[in-house]
Amino acid sequence: MKNYLEYNGYIGTVEFSAEDKIFFGKIHGINDLVTFEGTSVTDLEKSFQDSVLDYLETCKTLNKVPDKVFKGSFNVRVSQELHQKTALLASKRGLNLNEVVKEALSYLVNHEEVLN
User: How far apart are CA 59 and CA 82, in angstroms?
Assistant: First the structure.
């Protein structure tokens, strides 16, 4: 099951409010908060696509970069056992911990379709 929308290279969340009887979401990977909503899945998809196009047009008008810039570093919290096992694996392979994590992340990204 896929709980997100994709359009024009952008991903949007999919959530439902039982109280309001509405689907809603937001666009991820951008510099601003852009939300969308709909009373049906079809409405939600259309609203998401319109929001992406409107956001890109607004950024173009403002001469603004729409995509969030990632700095390339982040903290990962794991159990002590996983940390130890990963560090030992890195040593066995003649790598440092950072290189092992990069390899693991690259594998996940490059095999996304197989893993779903």
Answer: 42
